Amino acid sequence: MDLDELRRSGLFAHVEWHPEIGSTNTRALELALDATAPTPALVGAERQTAGRGRGGNRWWSGAGALTFSLVLDPTQDFLGPEVPALTPAHWPRLSLVAALALCHQLDRMVPGVSAQLKWPNDVHVAGRKIAGILVETASVPGGSSRLVLGMGVNVNNSLREGPAEIRDTACALVDLMGGPDVAAPVSRSRVLCGWMREFVELGQGLAQDDPLLPEGWRQRCPLAGRQVSLQAGDRTVSGLCLGIDDAGALLVDTPSGTERCFGGVLVRVQD
């Protein structure tokens, strides 16, 4: 990781990168509790020993993965002076915006490969997972809140080296660009800075309620038109997926009417 490039970019108010850490989100949540700490703050690691995803799932990341977390203050210019504050109503859409930003970055880096946004927090290419996102909230002393956005992206960690159970369901950027044997390692700092610039631009649209922004995640939703079942708390919601609405909810046409699901775990998807 080129830390000088990250600092020169001017995209981050604070940068720290660890050889090994339990979880970048855990460290970022610690930083978030300091109301005087500048944001956006970047916490990255070469290796996580306790990386986590939604619902307590573990995130596998081999050597060469891009794993990081951002500390964001939604009550002020949370991504810089050009991006206004977010209201709590915006927060549930932050993972969709982050995923959409990565889709745009992947499209630029690998022409002809259309990345998709699998609700609520994954990015897929050709039906295989390339990234996962986890957003958590930290209550800061004094009554305000900060957000921590964690992301794991398979970059140079070829899935040829991954666990057998995920080789058919996941992919890495280096494999899309020709594989580790024929391609030079992908610059993770280039991926991160490119994603952050796109995230800043889309974040501005989110804060300003740009009506065109939801079209981005609707067009990239691979679940639309498919039968799905998702676990939402103690309820199972099943039916035909109608896509993602403007507020970031997954629309499911059930026998009792259309359900708007703002969170949950997909347990079944079929054509």
- How are the strands ordered across the major sheet? 1-2-3-7-6-5-4
Put simply, the count of helices is 6
| Main sheet record | 7 strands, mixed
Quote the average pLDDT: 89
Strand content: 25-35%
Summing up helix and strand content along with how strands pair, one would put the structural category as alpha+beta
Task: Tell me what the structure shows.
Helix content is 23%, strand content 29%. By secondary structure, the protein is of the alpha+beta class. It has a 7-stranded mixed β-sheet with strand order 1-2-3-7-6-5-4, with helices on both faces. A 5-stranded antiparallel β-sheet has the order 11-10-9-8-12. α3 (94-109) packs across α5. The protein starts with a helix and ends with a strand. 41% of the residues are buried. The model has no long low-confidence stretch (mean pLDDT 89).
Topology of this structure?
Elements: H1 3-8, E1 14-18, H2 24-32, E2 41-45, E3 66-72, H3 94-109, E4 115-118, E5 122-125, E6 128-139, E7 145-153, H4 173-176, H5 188-207, H6 213-219, E8 227-232, E9 235-244, E10 250-254, E11 257-261, E12 265-270
Parallel strand pairs: 1-2
Antiparallel strand pairs: 2-3, 3-7, 4-5, 5-6, 6-7, 8-9, 8-12, 9-10, 10-11
